[in-house]
Write a structure and sequence with these properties.
3-stranded antiparallel beta sheet, alpha+beta, disordered N terminus, globular, 10 strands, Aminopeptidase, 11 helices
Length: 292
C-alpha cells in the first residue's frame, strides 16, 4: 500500500522512468491529493520501456482495471532528413498527399473562428466511429493555449475557400502528439487528413521534436478488423513504429474507499448489459399464428 510520503528517497526507478520534471509533478500531485481525501492518483505513463510495469509496481502503484488512454501507439522517428521521412510513407499515403495538393487543398493556421466548424466535424466523426469527443468550448480553450504558449499547431485544410478538415497537435518536450483530426465528406474524398498529418509531421521536426505520436492504435496481436483496425491501418501508412504502453496505474490513498469505488465503477459498466439482458428475458415471446 502506498501511503503519503512513501516515495521519499525511494523513487529513483520512477525518476528514471518518468524523468525528473514529471516525477516532481507526480510528487506534487500526491501532496495535494492525499490531504484532500482523494481516493487515488491515476497515472498513464507515456513510455514504451519494457520494464515500466515492474518499475511502477516496485514503488507501490497498482495496475488500474481500466485504461485512460489506448494501450498502444504509433510513432514516427523525426531525426532523419525530410527525404527519408517521405520515403518512409507507404506508397498509397504519398499518392494521397500528392493528390490533395494537386486537387488544390491548402493549409493555414486555425483561428477561433474555425473551432465551431471543426468541433462539428469531430462530433460527426465520433458518431460515425463510435467514440466520445470534446465539444467546441474545450477545443477553443485547447487551441488558444497552444497558440499562446507556442506548444503545438492547429492546422486547417481549405478547398475553394471552404474549410474541409483540420488537425490539432501538441508538443511536450521532444514529443509531438496528434490530438484531434477530422474532416467532412469533401475532405475525406480529397484526402485532406493525409496532407494535414504530413504537414504536422514536418512542423514537429522543425520544432526539434524527436517523435511524432499518432496516439491510439491496436495493441500487438489485435485483430486488424477489430475496433482499432481502421485507425491502426491508416496510421501505419506514415512509416510509424509500434509502441506498447504500460497502461494506467493507481497511487491509492484510501484503500477501502478505493475498493468501493472500483466495485461501483464495475457495476456501472455492467449495468447497461444486465438491464438489456433482463429486458430481453421479460419481453413476451412472440408466437407464430396457428394455421388451421
Amino acid at each position: 500500500m502506498l501511503r503519503p510520503g512513501a516515495w521519499s528517497g525511494d523513487d529513483a526507478p520512477l525518476q528514471v522512468l518518468l524523468g525528473e520534471a514529471r516525477r516532481r509533478g507526480v510528487a506534487a500531485s500526491r501532496r495535494r491529493g492525499a490531504p484532500r481525501a482523494a481516493l487515488t492518483l491515476r497515472l498513464d505513463p507515456l513510455t514504451s520501456e519494457p520494464d515500466a510495469p515492474a518499475t511502477l509496481a516496485a514503488v507501490g502503484l497498482r495496475r488500474s482495471p481500466t485504461n485512460v488512454q489506448p494501450a498502444a501507439t504509433a510513432v514516427v522517428d523525426l531525426d532523419r532528413p525530410e527525404s527519408e521521412l517521405w520515403g518512409g510513407l507507404a506508397r498509397d499515403a504519398r499518392y494521397r498527399v500528392g493528390r490533395a495538393r494537386k486537387k488544390g487543398v491548402t493549409l493555414r493556421p486555425g483561428t477561433d473562428d474555425d473551432v465551431d466548424l471543426f468541433a462539428g466535424m469531430l462530433a460527426e466523426t465520433g458518431l460515425r466511429k463510435g467514440f466520445a469527443v470534446r465539444g467546441s468550448s474545450y477545443v477553443r480553450r485547447l487551441t488558444r493555449m497552444l497558440r499562446e504558449q507556442d506548444c503545438g499547431v492547429f492546422l486547417v485544410a481549405m478547398l475553394d475557400d471552404a474549410m474541409i478538415g483540420a488537425t490539432v497537435a501538441a508538443t511536450f518536450g521532444q514529443r509531438a502528439a496528434s490530438l484531434y483530426t477530422a474532416s467532412n465528406d469533401v475532405g475525406r474524398t480529397e484526402r485532406a487528413q493525409h496532407l494535414l498529418h504530413w504537414e504536422a509531421i514536418l512542423r514537429a521536426r522543425e520544432r526539434g521534436c524527436a517523435l511524432y505520436d499518432f496516439r491510439g492504435v491496436g495493441a500487438a496481436g489485435d485483430d486488424m478488423f477489430g475496433a482499432w483496425g481502421g485507425l491502426t491501418f491508416f496510421k501505419t501508412r506514415f512509416g510509424t513504429r509500434h509502441e506498447d504502453l504500460p497502461g494506467a496505474w493507481d497511487d491509492v490513498y484510501r484503500p477501502l474507499a478505493y475498493k468501493s469505488f472500483l466495485l461501483a465503477q464495475d457495476a456501472r459498466h455492467r449495468a447497461p448489459r444486465a438491464l438489456s439482458t433482463l429486458a430481453a428475458r421479460l419481453r413476451p415471446a412472440t408466437t407464430s399464428p396457428t394455421v388451421s
